[in-house]
Amino acid sequence: MSGMRGDPPVESGVAADRAERLTRTIRDQTFPNLKPRDSATLILIDRAEPVPKVLLGRRHERHRFMPGKFVFPGGRIEAADRKMAASAALHERDVARLMRLVRRPSAAKAASFALAAVRETYEETGLMLGVRRDNVVAPPGPWEAFAKAGVLPDLSAIHFIARAITPPKRPLRFDSRFFAAEISAVAHREDGFVGPEAELVELVWLPITEARRLDMPGITAIVLEELQDRIAAGMSYDHPTPLYRMRHKRFIREVL
Question: Taking the model in full, what pTM does it have?
Fold first, then answer.
């Protein structure tokens, strides 16, 4: 990968402990090596009670990737995500971080990661993030539902929390960006997206302090800790955004 010059700094202390715990979750690495696919994930936060709650969904048992695990809504970046407009841009610091260590970095590419997280959240949960607008124009495909509902994504409501790259020689590999937004960013809701035959068979809202008790991937649990730190810092854009990736058969935590 290429982008800005120089690798991000590697951290120690609590950060190193998180990387070490993530290393211990790694399973069989004997598969042919694959290039990671860009993906994006969104964590919805509900602050109605003293301890914030987060939304997680349980994946269908028949899924090839993380069957039965509790995860945040998300999926791969699609070409249409670069064509969808937004009512407001991402914060400039998040744009800069999203442009680190990517091929052909641009503000449009950074926005497409966040837009993919918004689209995937709608496709998996029926929750549509954005603001109400008249005459919304959307590219063909899933984004047409936003135009029909009169909702335009608002990227200023989204925070870039973490990035993680699946280790080499796993059956599927993703270069995942984890975003977060308040439940107040949801402008429209539709039913029928979650159920026995859907990608997510159930949705749960849990206090962030309890959510890690669920059966979830190691990286999901680690990102919840990163989110707790961000919330404690007032969701400040000055708070560091980490990158978790494997080097010499161990995860490291770097700051973007």
Answer: 0.92
